[in-house]
Amino acid sequence: xxxxxxxxxxxxxxxxxxxxxxxxxxxxxxxxxxxxxxxxxxxxxxxxxxxxxxxxxxxxxxxxxxxxxxxxxxxxxxxxxxxxxxxxxx
Length: 90
Fold this sequence. Notes:
This protein is 83% helix and 0% strand. The chain is mainly α.
């Protein structure tokens, strides 16, 4: 229940990550004519890099309350972006 609570239910930025993953996948497929697997891997890499950057350059304990909550939030963000990309690819 904790995973659902922090990764999805209380995740205020999840919809932006979903939108970002979908738009990035569409751009890569349409403009750069990439294959589906490579598109998925790029979206996954960008999502993970974004969360690493956020962890490194922001005070996650102040923003999220604890590192554990940040990690759960980040997992939801990454899952949302990659699932949106997968829907666009398929």
